[in-house]
Amino acid sequence: MSDAPFPSALNKPPGYNDPNSPAGFKPPPRKPVLPPSFRPKKKKGSVCCCCFCISFSILIALIIIFAAVFYFSVNPKLPRFHVRSFQIPRFNVTETPDGTYLDSTTMTVMEVRNPNGKMTYYYGDTAVDISVGEGKDETELGTAKVPKFTSRTQNTTSLKVETKASNKQVDNTLANRLLSGYKSKSLAVNVAARTKVGVGVAGLKTGMLGVTVKCKGITMKQLDGDDMPNCLIHTLR
What we know:
By secondary structure, the protein is an alpha+beta fold.
């Protein structure tokens, strides 16, 4: 009868120190085995975030390419405004015991130039303010409204504006300075137009953007000499 096999060594309990092991030797700690319900799940958020970033980058690149193609194919230019002529048919200063009063009538012609070959500008109703003088001497001479209009490609549109100021009380010294400038044609003319403008390209129209056009410090003598400085365009905030 053969001998029974020697039983295998039993598992050592946690914390057991083998007397036959070298001094100071400690077995590595065992990792606890967690049940499946406690095991951490792999996160998918990083993958989704990466896909979103790639898609967003592609979209931005397409927008930039489209804008570049549009710019070089259309070659957009801003409209140009200038005062073509300015006249004051009536400019009377009356001194009374109650004060000094100004009566005036102005006739202004503004020209709007569209230099684009493929772009049309659409303007809403326009309010035009007329004043004369500079700095503290600036005096309003009335406001007129111009109905909406369209500025076609490579086209110039003339806007005729007439304003009146009746019995406008002013300082006596100021009135005399304005009257002197009017007679010598050195009087500064200021024109400010407030309107909304939209753009049309290839049958498509954009929304309207508020703008202000300012033509300041132009003298009557300059306009009589066919000097037509360009006006400045500001967007409304």
